[in-house]
Design goal:
- There is one protein chain.
- This protein is mainly alpha-helical.
- It contains eight helices and two strands; from the N terminus they run H-H-H-E-E-H-H-H-H-H.
- It has one domain.
- Strand 1 and strand 2 form a beta hairpin.
- The longest helix has 29 residues.
- It starts with a helix and ends in a 5-residue tail after the last helix.
């Protein structure tokens, strides 16, 4: 699998890409190594560079940069937690499927979690400059991608898809905030 081509296709035409993905095997190890691992590097690397090299401007103090050690371990923690978050979301999507009229299928649920996270990882490039970090909100396009894939992969009826999507997105946001809080607590405010 070419991760760059798949990411481009997920952003450009998620409906057509979900139709192709539905027919593919959902081997978790393959998805983690072939798609999650390279894309999850984007926010980790750009966050590290932004925190340790570029720094953040603090009024009255000037430019503040994270120590290399803190930035490096913060990036590693963020990378590992991103992979864990995708796995937890896959489990959650699978577990909640019957609640929203869908069928349980972990492989499909994991594919949904992985590919819906694409905009989040790609928006990690904005961690490079503190003034651009608000553009990370572009990652919420992943909610639309998830919405498009839920009926096809989890066989959830269309009237229940909005609520199903909202629950999964809320859980993803909570997991992301927990990760950010852990990074902040362990490595300080400048680390990310």
């Amino acid at each position: 699998m070419n991760a760059a081509l798949r990411a481009k296709a997920m952003l450009a035409d998620p409906a057509a890409e979900w139709a192709r993905i539905e027919k593919e095997p959902g081997d978790a190890a393959y998805l983690l190594t072939g798609y999650v691992a390279p894309l999850a590097l984007i926010p980790a690397v750009f966050g590290f560079i932004g925190a340790c090299v570029v720094g953040a401007v603090v009024p009255g103090v000037g430019s503040v940069r994270a120590p290399i050690f803190d930035g490096l371990f913060g990036a590693v923690l963020g990378y590992v937690m991103t992979c864990a978050t995708v796995l937890l979301l896959g489990l959650l999507i699978d577990a909640l499927a019957p609640t929203f009229g869908g069928r349980r299928d972990f492989d499909s649920a994991f594919k949904l979690a992985v590919y819906s996270y694409t905009p989040v990882w790609l928006s990690g490039i904005f961690l490079l400059a503190p003034g651009l970090r608000f553009l990370g909100l572009a990652g919420f396009y992943g909610a639309y991608i998830l919405w498009m894939g839920l009926p096809l992969l989890m066989k959830s009826p269309a009237p229940r898809v909005p609520t199903y999507t909202a629950v999964i997105v809320a859980c993803a946001c909570a997991l992301t905030l927990i990760t950010a809080a852990a990074q902040h607590a362990l490595f300080g405010p400048a680390a990310f």
